[in-house]
């Protein structure tokens, strides 16, 4: 059994099929979708990580089921976690996936080791 929600991961993968440069990597106890060499979306056991423009957070106040991601007690700028509870509807999943894809061209790639 995988540590991440395989059904949600398949639904996300379906939405990324039309994109040329998508890579799936198992990391952070989940499955991360790299788009154009940059972390874009991730699926864990009960949520989806979304990388987005940090300036759009105030525009999401009317959306339910998301929270700022925190690592080591510090907020991760530009990363949120969306509960799988709100991702059951295709229109909700599409909203979050499209938000991440819209930011991807502007996102910085991590440094190669």
TrEMBL record:
**TfoX N-terminal domain sequence ranges:** 15-103
Q: Which SUPFAM superfamilies match?
A: YgaC/TfoX-N like
Q: Which Gene3D superfamilies match?
A: YgaC/TfoX-N like chaperone
List the Pfam families.
Answer: TfoX_N
What is the name of this protein? TfoX/Sxy family protein
**Originating organism:** Pedobacter riviphilus
């Amino acid at each position: 059994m995988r540590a991440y929600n395989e059904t949600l991961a398949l639904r996300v993968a379906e939405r990324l099929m039309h994109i040329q440069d998508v890579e799936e990597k198992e990391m952070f106890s989940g499955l991360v979708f790299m788009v154009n060499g940059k972390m874009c979306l991730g699926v864990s056991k009960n949520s989806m990580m979304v990388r987005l423009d940090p300036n759009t957070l105030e525009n999401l106040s009317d959306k339910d089921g998301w929270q700022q991601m925190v690592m080591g007690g510090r907020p991760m700028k530009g990363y949120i976690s969306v509960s799988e509870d709100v991702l059951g509807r295709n229109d909700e999943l599409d909203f979050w996936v499209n938000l991440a894809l819209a930011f991807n061209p502007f996102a910085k790639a991590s440094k190669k080791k």
